[in-house]
Design a protein that fits this description.
Blueprint: H1 22-27, E1 30-35, E2 41-46, E3 49-57, E4 60-64, E5 69-75, E6 78-81, E7 86-87, E8 91-98, E9 103-105, H2 110-122, E10 133-138, E11 144-147, E12 156-159, E13 162-166, E14 171-176, E15 193-195, E16 202-206, H3 208-215, H4 219-233
Antiparallel strand pairs: 1-4, 2-3, 2-8, 4-5, 5-6, 7-8, 8-9, 10-13, 11-12, 11-16, 13-14, 14-15
Helix pairs in contact: 3-4
């Protein structure tokens, strides 16, 4: 008589890109977000300016299934945990920074930890599939999506209205489809919003100060676009 085997496949399925098992990846998915409303920033360095510290406004704080909490920022073409930014050329995470008290720290602030833990306990979602949206937050740092379908010969800057967190932990930047706008202002959850990733010409995210420079055709901002284009082609 053959003997049945009881095997937990979730511990044997490996992501070929990260080397993580399915269960490890599940534990790292984000389950709750808390918008950053006090202007805290990420500190980073890059290879071109090794002796300088740069800052980038934090969009929100994310709670993972395993209880870990990270700051999140729009970085190049995706939303990224600050602690996972590790590219010498583009940038390497060095810590968090509170400009109000000029303090550097390396873990999520206690008030955000408390907020996320309490919200996760309160909101218990039952989802039918991994693409279900479990939370949507406003973009309060002026993020813009850069759209270009002709190798940056021309660009369009689209304001990001909100970010949607799905049950699988993925986040999507939501843009306005002007043809579907029925009421203004356009708020999170509006039917006219669509994910930036649905656009084949979506390229990168920029915060408002860079987006404004691009609108003004600032030479340094144009040079930054050219640099990204060249790096992407390599």
């Amino acid at each position: 008589m053959s003997e049945a085997l009881n095997v937990d496949l979730s511990t044997n399925i490996i992501d070929i890109f990260t080397g993580e098992t399915w269960s490890e990846k599940q534990q790292k998915r984000f389950v709750r977000l808390a918008p950053e409303i006090d202007g805290m920033e990420m500190l980073y360095t890059n290879e071109q300016n090794p002796n300088k510290l740069f800052t980038l406004k934090i969009l929100c704080w994310g709670l993972r299934e395993n209880g870990e909490i990270d700051g999140l920022v729009p970085w190049l073409d995706k939303i990224v945990p600050c602690t996972e930014i590790d590219d010498p050329l583009q940038g390497t995470w060095q810590g968090y920074y509170d400009p109000g008290i000029e303090q550097i720290f390396f873990e999520a602030p206690e008030h955000k930890v408390s907020e996320l833990d309490a919200a996760a306990d309160y909101y218990q979602y039952e989802v039918e599939n991994e693409d279900d949206v479990i939370q949507e937050i406003s973009d309060n740092i002026g993020t813009h999506a850069v759209l270009s379908g002709d190798q940056f010969q021309s660009i369009t800057l689209a304001e990001v209205v909100s970010w949607r967190l799905k049950a699988n932990g993925d986040m999507s930047a939501m843009l306005i489809d002007e043809k579907l706008v029925e009421t203004t202002p356009v708020l999170p959850g509006d039917p006219c919003l669509f994910s930036a990733n649905e656009r084949e010409d979506f390229q990168y995210f920029f915060q408002h100060h860079i987006a404004n420079k691009l609108k003004e055709k600032d030479p340094e901002a144009i040079a930054a676009i050219a640099s990204l284009m060249n790096n992407g082609a390599q």
